Amino acid sequence: MSARYDCTDPEQRAAGLAEAAASLRKGDLAVMPTDTVYGVAADAFSAPAVVSLLAAKGRDRQMPPPVLVGTVRAATALVEDLDMSAKDLIDEFWPGALTLVLRANRSLIWDLGDTKGTVAVRMPLHELALELLKETGPLAVSSANRSGSPPATTAADAEAQLGEAVAVYLDSGPCAGDVPSTIVDLTGPVPKLLRAGAISVERLREVVTLAVEDYWAPGTGDTAADSGTGDTAADSGTGDTAAEPDTGKTPAEPDTGDTPAK
Q: What is the pTM of this model?
């Protein structure tokens, strides 16, 4: 049976975080708030847990989830290298609503789906999410909704869609908005916009040279990547990624918004 915790209450917050962390370590799923939309999370290093996450959303391996981290150091351990563009974007926008698609560290033993050797990574700007991530380590997080349905902006929305597939729901009230993270692919010679989102192209171009070609925009379909979230194929937190826009799929993996992800 699922448990829901009102994290605006200090006692329930502490109990909910402890229960969510314990459930995630056991391979169960948890729903968590992010700075974009609510995300559904699984242990990124548990292949069965990631399979459960995809099944709960009604997705297959072609739409792998993004990974949320609690620190830049944790993100660095997941990828092959951070070039100057990646470092500049992280310095400017993390924690925040920017998902970066990077080459995954080949020494890691994990299976997020058909990622083509990439991973979509984000550090969310949300106190509760960061507290959980620092307790659990990196989490695979996608928007807390069934694929093709609107992203969940409340824990109640998420529970209505995911039900008993999730062990723990952390409820911190309504999200500030329903716009997923922006996704930028850093696996090529020039940073490339994969999904428009909370951070504008203009702001990104103040920091890096950015290629803007065909990309997925919120409201045009399902994506695998965010949470996170914004659901994107990219590719979310939450997202809300596989790295191809989902009209444009993204290589790596997140929304979080089926739209992360988480």
A: 0.84
Range of the domain at 100: 3-250
- The total number of structural domains in the chain stands at 1
Find the largest Cα–Cα distance for the chain: 49
Please classify residue 262 by burial: count the beta carbons closer than 10 Å to its beta carbon, then call 0-12 exposed, 13-18 middle and 19+ buried: buried
Picking from 244, 207, 202, the residue whose alpha carbon sits closest to that of residue 85 is 207
Q: How many CB atoms within 10 Å of residue 46? A: 19
Asked if the structure places residue 262 within a domain, the reply is: no
* Cα 244 from Cα 105, distance rounded (Å): 19
Cα separation, 5 vs 170, in Å, equals 5
For residue range 12-28, list pLDDT tens digits in order. Answer: 999 999 999 999 999 99
CB distance 71 to 90 below 8 Å: no
φ, ψ for residue 102 (rounded to 5)?
Answer: -135, 165
Closest CA to 121 of 247, 246, 237, 255: 237
CATH number for the domain spanning 207: value is 3.90.870.10
Q: 101: helix, coil or strand?
A: strand
